[in-house]
Amino acid sequence: MAVPTDTVWKWLADIPDPEIPVLSLTDLGVIRDVHWQDETLVVTVTPTYSGCPATAVINLDIETKLRQCGIDKLRLEQQLSPPWTTDWLSETGREKLRKYGIAPPVGQSGSAPASGGRIARLTGGDSLVVACPRCGSENTEKISQFGSTPCKAAYRCRSCLEPFDYFKCH
Amino acid sequence: MGGSNDKIASDILFEWLLRRGDTVLVLGHRVSEWCGHSPVLEEDIALANVALDLIGQARMWLSLAGEVEGKGRGENELAYLRDAWDFRNVLLAEQPNGDFGKTLMRQFLIDTFQVLQLKELETSADPRIAAIAAKAGKEAAYHLDRSADLVIRLGDGTPESHRRMQDALDQLWSYTGELFTSDEIDQAMSDAGLAPDPASLKSEWQKTVDEVLAEATLTAPDSAFAHLGGLTGRHSEHLGHLLAEMQFLQRAYPGATW
């Protein structure tokens, strides 16, 4: 008696991301597929960053949640390709981030670089306007490309003077 | 799926995968040595995050290497239970951190190579290699953004920062040639459509490095001499010390987990 996969997706939408708990795993876009293979539920998960320490916790949380929901036969598969991108963050996820004080990714990942130069062409460039999630001002500056986690950069708002995290495009 | 690739002998593919995995593992460990010691908090976090990305990439390459080898060794056995002569990283990756400037110069020289190589690997005839490259390539691009920016800011900074960056470049330059050496393993990989010949990446690397160094007001030594050996297991004395620290726990307490 297989549970419909729609129901499984709803359960997965209740699991918070271990590092940014306002987001659920489905907001984050890391669950790539849910299907039944005979009697076994197969959940395909993609890592955000290859060295992200949360990956193991995410897998454990999925397993714990689904077992609580009565799934006995369960297999988690990792899928690297296509690589995870912040483009897969859901709209509700972006709004939740902003309310939480983290500026959501600006623009699309891999969009054409705005600046010239060989490095910018190789790397996708880096001349973004990131609005402050607290006061909305666009008068902000980057302090460090890497913030408290690999997926965030540290910014400062010149208007309200508060520091904030920016969830980088990836 | 499975561990086979009919385009190439598995021992050649294994060696090539070790070169990828060991280079990012050893560099990642080096960078992690800065944790808690960086000049400012933001840089401490940035370096730790770069190290984390590199070690994550090493896990992907070494897991695949273990699978290809087919002797039951996984990422952990390959990382923790091989000795220096079994490592296949480039010598540049194992060079000591020196000061902050030298660490960033080393990072910039390798990042530029990584970005170019990974971009080519995304179209590898082996989908497993292509998938890892697509994942790692995005991270390498971010690392290069940062390391190039800091090389320019420090090179074109104060007389003291300029002097340190020029010293770093002078010390590291002779280790860059190894990145572009090409042997029978590279040839076989290239012939099978699995990987670019490293020599083919040289001119693009040179142009990118030249552009950044010019903006940083730094001058690369006018020498083509290259230290070689890392890719075939002949390392500088620094690797043994690095492994002694990195492997200590698994050597002293075999099989320890947490």
Automatic annotation (TrEMBL), chain A:
Pfam families: FeS_assembly_P (PF01883), Zn_ribbon_PaaD (PF23451). Residues 6-68 form the MIP18 family-like domain. InterPro entries: Fe-S_Maturation_MIP18, FSCA_dom_sf, MIP18-like, PaaD-like, Zn_ribbon_PaaD. Residues 123-168 form the PaaD zinc beta ribbon domain. Signal peptide: none annotated. PANTHER family: 1,2-PHENYLACETYL-COA EPOXIDASE, SUBUNIT D-RELATED (PTHR42831:SF3), FE-S PROTEIN MATURATION AUXILIARY FACTOR YITW (PTHR42831). This is Phenylacetate-CoA oxygenase subunit PaaJ. The lineage of its organism: Bacteria, Pseudomonadati, Pseudomonadota, Alphaproteobacteria, Hyphomicrobiales.
UniProtKB/TrEMBL annotation, chain B:
Gene3D superfamilies: 1.20.1260.10. Keywords: Oxidoreductase. It is an enzyme of class 1 (oxidoreductase). Its EC number is 1.14.13.149. InterPro entries: Aromatic_CoA_ox/epox (IPR052703), Ferritin-like (IPR012347), Ferritin-like_SF (IPR009078), PaaA_PaaC (IPR007814), PaaC (IPR011882). SUPFAM superfamilies: Ferritin-like. The lineage of its organism: Bacteria, Pseudomonadati, Pseudomonadota, Alphaproteobacteria, Hyphomicrobiales. NCBIfam families: PA_CoA_Oxy3 (TIGR02158). GO terms for molecular function: phenylacetyl-CoA 1,2-epoxidase activity. Pfam families: PaaA_PaaC. This is Phenylacetate-CoA oxygenase subunit PaaC. The keyword ATP-binding does not apply. The gene is paaC. It comes from Roseibium sediminicola.
